[in-house]
């Protein structure tokens, strides 16, 4: 919820200022919802762990690591739709912080808590898309 509440004003302001021509469009089929809400968070968290592991070789503190991880994910999401990265940045910053904090306890806890936050985020977004188009 934190990522959604903090991201929506930023995304809408950016869209108002720059009038992007492309926004993410999804057909709300069962397959799309399954992929976006369940499968994508698992796969993206696995990839995020690899990115964070790679960044750990630079021995950065938690915040710079989370910032760089989020920036990488924002750029990757922006490749398909430019303004998508704006909204994704905040989410992946929160996900990276979550993973890094919970990783101190265990990899399993860190992984599944991060996946759960991601699933909840995507579920809320797709719920709003279903309600408001």
How would you explain this protein's 3D organization?
With 133 residues, this protein is mainly α. The protein has a domain at 42-53 and 60-133. It is 80% helix and 0% strand. It is built from five helices and no strands. The protein has helices at residues 2-18, 30-56, 62-78, 84-103, 107-132. Helix 1 (2-18) packs antiparallel against helix 4 (84-103) and helix 2 runs antiparallel to helix 5. The longest helix has 27 residues, at 30-56. It is globular and about 45 Å long. It starts with a helix and ends with a helix.
Query: Multimeric state of these chains?
Result: single chain
Provide a count of the helices: 5
Order of helices and strands: HHHHH
Could you give a short account of the major beta sheet?
A: none
Radius of gyration (Å): 15 Å
**pLDDT < 50 stretches:** none
Helix content: over 70%
Assign an overall shape.
globular
Main structural class: mainly alpha
Strand content: under 5%
Give the termini separation: 20 Å
| Total number of beta strands | 0
> How would you state the average pLDDT, rounded?
86
């Amino acid at each position: 919820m934190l990522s959604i509440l903090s991201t929506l004003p930023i995304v809408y302001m950016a869209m108002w200022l720059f009038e992007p021509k492309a926004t993410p469009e999804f057909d709300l089929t069962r397959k799309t919802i399954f992929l976006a809400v369940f499968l994508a968070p698992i796969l993206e968290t696995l990839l995020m762990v690899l990115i964070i592991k790679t960044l750990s070789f630079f021995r950065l503190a938690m915040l710079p690591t989370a910032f760089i991880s989020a920036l990488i994910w924002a750029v990757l999401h922006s490749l398909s739709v430019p303004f998508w990265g704006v909204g994704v940045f905040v989410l992946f910053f929160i996900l990276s912080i979550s993973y890094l904090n919970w990783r101190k306890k265990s990899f399993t806890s860190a992984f599944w808590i991060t996946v759960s936050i991601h699933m909840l985020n995507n579920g809320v977004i797709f719920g709003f898309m279903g309600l408001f188009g």
